[in-house]
Amino acid sequence: MSGKNKKLIAGLLVIVLLLIVGPFLALKGAEFGGSDDAGSVMVEEIAGEYEPWFTPVLEILINGELPGEIESLLFCVQTGIGVGILAFCMGRLVERKKWTDRENKMTA
């Protein structure tokens, strides 16, 4: 690896670290909440009393509210499954194109 590539990689790593750490430094004392919580708060402000139409199935099964860490874990698992499916489909499309290009070269 040349010195130019090492400098580029080091610079990119510094930028990534700044993008990760920067928001935490800029938003000291900020509270992060989910969109569900924000939505219910806005409805209560506008219409008064707000009661959800249903409770999540997992909360019924465990007779209580899910801890935030478990909710985050389930969200990450959903995201991982979705990304895996998208990556698989995109890979299949790329391979299909390679096979059709190869077949077209052989028949020509």
From TrEMBL:
Q: How does it assemble?
A: Forms an energy-coupling factor (ECF) transporter complex composed of an ATP-binding protein (A component, CbiO), a transmembrane protein (T component, CbiQ) and 2 possible substrate-capture proteins (S components, CbiM and CbiN) of unknown stoichimetry.
- Specify whether Cell membrane is a keyword of the entry: yes
Q: Which domain of life is it from?
A: Bacteria
GO terms for biological process, alphabetical? cobalamin biosynthetic process
Recite the UniProt keywords alphabetically.
Answer: Cell membrane, Cobalamin biosynthesis, Cobalt, Cobalt transport, Ion transport, Membrane, Transmembrane, Transmembrane helix, Transport
What protein name does the entry list? Cobalt transport protein CbiN
Keyword Transmembrane helix belongs to the record: yes
Bilayer-crossing regions: 72-94
Q: Which organism is it from?
A: Hungatella hathewayi WAL-18680
